Amino acid sequence: MEPVAGNTLSKAERLSSKKDISRLIGNGRWGVCDAVKYCCLSPNGLDFNRIMVSVPKKHFKRAVKRNLLKRRLREAYRTQKSLCREGDGVDIMFQYDSPEILPYASIRDIVAKILKNIK
Fold this sequence. Notes:
119 residues, four-stranded mixed sheet, globular
């Protein structure tokens, strides 16, 4: 399955298989950047990157707030995915780890730092 080029986030670019997620969590490299914890595993055997976004219920009991933060993280990645290397393919998990809701601009800067660090 080939992802669509440009600033899109197709189904193929989303990490959803239980086997792939457990491999990422077990073998991946963990890091923290401000309010976001991340885990990355390279290479994933594909020509493109795949991501997964997680916002724990521990900090945000309401699903509306969790969905808002997940949307912001996915949007920040989608608009800046060119910062991360292409070709090898990397699996990335973003986990929001702050008890407060940050504005989109802050989340975008954090995701940019993470992608440059992974590069």
